[in-house]
Amino acid sequence: MKLIDGFFDRLVERQTRQLAQRSSRRGMLKTLGGLMVGAGAIPLLPVARAAAAEGPERPVEEGDPASCDYWRYCAIDGFLCSCCGGSENTCPPGTEMSPVTWIGTCRNPADGRNYVISYNDCCGKSSCGACMCQRDEGDRPPYRPDKTNDMNWCLGTTSAAYHCSTAIVVGVAFEGK
Amino acid sequence: MKTGLTILALLFGTSAVAADINQQRAQFNYQMSCQGCHAPDGSGANAVPRMRDHVGSFLTTQAGREYLVRVPGSAVSALSDAELAEVLNWIVVEFAGNSAVEPFEPYSSLEVGRLRQQPLNEVVQYRAQLLADIASANMRE
């Protein structure tokens, strides 16, 4: 009996030591933390059609989406949804994203590449009034209506009341010939 | 999806169309000049016409084929003749879906350059009449 006890003792001890050598409490925390952060990255709510329709390369980014000098806002003219209860990709609660929008390109300083940006307006509430941002790179006069930010893009929505603007990455600019 | 289209193109001998389209360039030009109103998948929005599963029906008559170039969004766009021809071919391949007609004769930059010289003015009215004509032409066949 003692012999068997001793055998089991040694077996359990060896297994426990091996387990301790292979894994760590930090490792467990890392896995758990990864899962928690990862789960946060999966959108739980329906997201914009503009962002969902295709899976463009997600750029590496830097900067603050609540600041007017954020790279995606190079051609924006309006209130930043990031300051209005939404984000650079999503509309604030109670507003509706316009399916009709104007599209331009901005250079991402993090990787030096140009991306296609869709400036979908969020509509259905009066002007947000926070973080007014006007940067007009590539903006054209209204005689080129698809390339002007100087108009209310709340078209195709139930309400034409403008609230704020998003800046969604929808693709990578083609730079060949 | 793209693989599927390539296989279909190879099977049905339309590989010439696929070969003439630079996918990245065509999609970029679509995004920059068309997508803002016609949506990423060509489904349109309210008053903006739907191209998905519909655009192919215009290719059943000559007037319909010309319409796709003469409509102001095409004719007065900032795209060159070659770029416009490529985008139109890309739109047909990508979005025609149920409305696709075989064989599809791709637009050439020469054809596009000629047709866009006569842009349409009363588009809504013209389009309604055109679709009625296309429907009755298809009924007769």
Relevant terms:
heterodimer, A: 2 domains, three-stranded antiparallel sheet, 24% helix, 18% strand, B: 141 residues, mainly alpha, 9 helices, 0% strand
The structure class of chain A reads alpha+beta
What is the level 1 CATH name of the largest domain in chain A?
Mainly Beta
The counted number of beta strands of chain B is 0
Radius of gyration of chain A: 25 Å
Name the beta content range of chain A.
15-25%
Major sheet of chain B: none
Q: In the CATH hierarchy, what is the superfamily of chain B?
A: Cytochrome c-like domain
Spatial ordering of strands, largest sheet of chain A: 2-5-7
Q: What's the helix-strand series of chain A?
A: HHHEEEEEEEE
Helix-strand sequence of chain B: HHHHHHHHH
CATH architecture of chain B: Orthogonal Bundle
Class inferred from helices and paired strands of chain B: mainly alpha
CATH architecture of the largest domain in chain A: Sandwich
- Mean residue pLDDT of chain B: 88
State the end-to-end distance of chain A: 83 Å
The CATH topology assignment of the largest domain in chain A is Electron Transport Ethylamine Dehydrogenase
Mean pLDDT of chain A: 83
Protein described:
Chain A has 177 residues and is α+β, with helices and mostly antiparallel strands. Chain A has 3 helices and 8 strands, in the order H-H-H-E-E-E-E-E-E-E-E. Chain A folds into 2 domains: 2-41; 49-172, Methylamine/Aralkylamine dehydrogenase light chain (Electron Transport Ethylamine Dehydrogenase), CATH 2.60.30.10. Chain A has helices at 2-22, 25-41, 49-52, and strands at 77-79, 96-97, 103-108, 113-118, 121-123, 132-134, 162-165, 168-172. In chain A, the strands form 3 sheets. A 3-stranded antiparallel sheet of chain A has the order 2-5-7, with no helix packed on it. Chain A has a 3-stranded antiparallel sheet with strand order 3-4-8, with no helix packed on it. In chain A, a hairpin with a 4-residue loop joins strand 3 and strand 4. Chain A is elongated and about 95 Å long. Chain B is mostly helical and 141 residues long. In chain B, helix 3 (23-33) crosses helix 7 (81-95) and helix 7 (81-95) packs across helix 8. The termini of chain B are far apart. The A-B interface holds A 49-50, 53-54, 99-105, 116, 118, 144, 146-147, 155-156, 170-174, 176 and B 22, 24-25, 27-29, 31-33, 35-37, 39-41, 45-48, 78.
